[in-house]
Amino acid sequence: MKWLQHQFESNEKHFKSGGKLETFYALYEMLYTIHFSLTNTTKKSAHVRDSLDTKRFMILVVIALTPCILFAIYNTGYQSQVASQLSLDFFSVVFRGLLLFLPVLITTFAVGGLWELIFAVVRKHEVNEGFLVTGMLLPLTLPATIPLWQVALGVSFGVVIGKEVFGGTGKNFLNPALTARAFMFFSYPAYMSGDAVWTFLSVAQDKVADTFSGATPLAVAFLTERGASVSEALVSAGYTWDRLFIGNYAASMGETSVLACLIGAFILIVTGVGSWRTMLSCVLGVVAMSTLLNIMAGPDSVAFLHLSAKWHLVMGGFAFGAVFMATDPVSSPDTNAAKWIYGILIGCLTVLIRTVNPAYPEGMMLAILLMNVFAPLIDHCVVARRLKKRIPNVL
Hints:
The chain folds into three domains: 2-35, no CATH class; 54-192; 228-377, no CATH class. The protein has 17 helices and no strands. The chain has helices at 2-15, 25-35, 54-83, 90-123, 130-140, 148-160, 176-187, 189-192, 217-223, 230-236, 241-246, 258-271, 276-296, 309-312, 318-325, 336-356, 364-389.
């Protein structure tokens, strides 16, 4: 490592202002800080409060995402092997999962990283590490069958339109990963939803296992006839509550496991990176809205309206969104009171979109995007209310 550090430091002069490679300083700084800490020090009193800089902040999020990534690799491979009636031994499943997940992950990093580098060079600033998280979040929310060219187009939209046009990381009001996913969903719905897109088949269609069904739990719930029990329909389709909690079924590659998300939530909360208020308030919003709909829905109402909160909490990408998306420090509110309001509204909207909107049964991702737009307003109202409560200065 000393040799590598010497190479970096001996060539630094070429990338600094006035050097022949000045244009590519952003690339040099990105590579250097990946391997080593910055050597810059302050000559006067320092104002750094602790060692948690942006890079370490993002690395902690990556560590928290690791359980979801490992689950995505295993579950994607497992579902493909089951549907194709192939071997289910651990190494075969993991190998298949890697073949399906890694190309999507590499595409997001390559294309998104290129856009980040281009804007860093043009604006003459360092490459921000925020994309490291964005590049991991997006693949976890996509189906295994998504074409790579759509992944490239989606991540380009998320980075450029969702973030860079507003000035880059810290100035965007929408979550870039969610912006990319929403763009892909509304642009190519046939590739992002429906029973046929969730599992990659290694064999011909006529050789698919007879017991395999590509219908997702949310699709089963939405298609349940009036008067019938959604929970019974889910169990009949093989989606028990325990299975939904573990997440072992065909859906987006890495967002279905509540267990993996809870492990990630524990890491984020203990390290102080993620807001427990936002996570808990999302849960409270789901419980409140689903309970209200259960009370108000009549016997002839849509069956989905009668589904209890305990099922909503483990279905789809709710846990993933509450832990990793809603807590994004850039696109979520800053004040603690605003975080409670923000999270509760996300939970309420998630249930409403799932049960009332026939075109978008998932709900969580769209709810977060909608509340991203209102996050600054919520913060403003909370601060304004506090200012009104202050005792005026006595002259």
